[in-house]
Amino acid sequence: MGLNIDELVDLTRWAKKTGADGIYFQPIEPIYASNQTLVQLKKTKLWVSNKQKALARKKIDELIKIKTKEGFIINDLDNLKKIKEYFELTQVKKTQKRKHCAIDLTTLFIDPLGKISFCPSYPKLNSLNKYKTQAILYSKNALKQRKIIRNCPKAGNCLSTCVSEKNLLQLIHLFLFLNK
After folding, report:
1. Are 47 and 41 in contact (CB under 8 A)?
2. Are residues 144 and 174 in the same domain?
3. Based on the domain organization, do 45 and 120 belong to the same domain?
4. Is there a smaller number of Cβ atoms within 10 Å at the N or the C end of the chain?
5. Are residues 84 and 120 in the same domain?
6. Which of 15, 1, 26 is nearest to 66 (CA)?
7. pTM
C-alpha cells in the first residue's frame, strides 16, 4: 500500500469503468512462501510510512465513501475501517473477537512447490509431491494444526481475504451485487 496509496481510488474507478463486478482490497501481509515477519514487512516500501499516514487515512476514507454511495467495493465497511487499524492509521478499537477461525474448513493454500497449508500464517502441512491430498488433510499434523487455528489469536481481526467474516445480510448483499 505504501507505494500505491494515491492510486487506490483511481484503481477503483478504473476497475468499474472496465466493467469489473467489484474490487476487494487486501492489506499486504508477509510473503506466503517465506519466513518474512510483519516486523520485517513494516520496514519495506510497501508498508505505509509515517509520512504517508495522513494520505493513507484520506484515501481509505474515500474508499469508504465509494463503498457507501456506490457499493462497488466488495469489502464490507468494517473491513475497510480495520485496514486503518492494521496500518496503524487510527487508534485500535477493541473489537469483539470471533471465538474460532474456521479457515481450515473453507480454504486450502497450495504453493508453487505443491506444499499445502490451511492459512498463510501457519506452517505448511506437507507436499503434494510426496502424499495424496486426503492423506495430508487427515494427517496427525493437520488435525493438530486445525485445533491451533480454531483458537488463533488473530481471529476477529484477521483481514485476509480468505477469512473476511460476513454476516447474513452482508452475504445476501454480496450475492445480489455479484449477480446483477
Report:
1. yes
2. no
3. no
4. C
5. no
6. 15
7. 0.63
Kindly state whether residues 84 and 171 are assigned to the same domain.
yes
d(CA 71, CA 16): 11
Question: Which residue in 106, 88, 113, 142 sits closest to 34, CA to CA?
Answer: 113
Strands of the sheet with 115-117, listed across from one edge: 109-110, 115-117, 126-127
pLDDT in tens, 107-152: 778 888 888 888 877 888 888 999 998 899 889 999 998 888 888 7
Question: Looking at the structure, do residues 91 and 107 belong to the same domain, yes or no?
Answer: no
Cα–Cα distance, 143 to 101 (Å, whole number): 14
Backbone angles phi, psi at 130, to 5 degrees: -110, -30
Cβ within 8 Å of residue 8, ≥6 positions away: 1, 25, 59, 60, 62, 63
